[in-house]
């Protein structure tokens, strides 16, 4: 694992955050497509002797995506499994769910940062509402000061 960890360390020092490049009109949100993620990390992976494989498997009747990061020279690897969740067994829904599983599995396995705009975490905290300025409580017991 020493070689893999060293290469992953170098990978993380060079890869930049990935910008969300697509809109989800259903949820009125943005996301980074699988193509955008793969294109963004391709060179940093290659430059650090790393390769990613993603395979679809069925385990005990459940579809999963198995994502693996390989160190090319040593053969060392780490692996992640992500469920493929579908509500309707159609080819279109399965394809969409596989793409979703690959995006999230890859992002998690490589600890990638996917960002929209830098808002200092306000959207995650407050949603679409404007942050509220909170005034510090005044001490009701002035004799404690």
Question: Can you give a write-up of this model?
Answer:
The protein has 145 residues and is an alpha+beta fold. The protein has one domain (2-118): 2-Layer Sandwich (Double Stranded RNA Binding Domain), CATH 3.30.160. It contains four helices and seven strands. The protein has helices at residues 2-14, 34-47, 91-109, 122-126; strands at residues 18-19, 22-24, 29-31, 50-59, 62-71, 77-83, 114-115. It has a three-stranded antiparallel β-sheet with strand order 4-5-6. A two-stranded parallel sheet has the order 1-7. A hairpin with a 4-residue loop joins strand 2 and strand 3. It is flat. The relative contact order is 0.16. Residues 118-122 and 131-136 have low confidence and may be disordered.
Keywords:
alpha+beta; Double Stranded RNA Binding Domain; 3-stranded antiparallel β-sheet; 4 helices; 145 residues
Topology (elements, then pairings):
Layout lengths: L1 H13 L3 E2 L2 E3 L4 E3 L2 H14 L2 E10 L2 E10 L5 E7 L7 H19 L4 E2 L6 H5 L19
Parallel strand pairs: 1-7
Antiparallel strand pairs: 2-3, 4-5, 5-6
Quick recap of the structure?
The chain is α+β, with helices and mostly antiparallel strands. Helix content is 35%, strand content 26%.
């Amino acid at each position: 694992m020493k070689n893999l960890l060293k290469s992953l360390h170098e990978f993380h020092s060079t890869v930049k955050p990935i910008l969300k490049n697509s809109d989800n009109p259903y949820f009125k949100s943005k996301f980074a497509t699988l193509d955008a993620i793969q294109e963004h990390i391709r060179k940093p992976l290659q430059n650090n002797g790393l390769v990613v494989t993603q395979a679809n498997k069925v385990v005990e009747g459940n579809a999963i995506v198995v994502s693996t990061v390989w160190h090319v020279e040593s053969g060392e690897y780490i692996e992640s499994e992500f469920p493929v969740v579908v509500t309707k067994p159609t080819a279109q829904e399965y394809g969409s769910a596989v793409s979703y599983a690959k995006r999230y599995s890859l992002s998690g396995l490589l600890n990638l940062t996917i960002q929209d705009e830098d808002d200092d975490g306000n959207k995650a905290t407050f949603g679409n509402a404007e942050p509220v300025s909170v005034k510090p409580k005044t001490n009701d017991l002035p004799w404690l000061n």
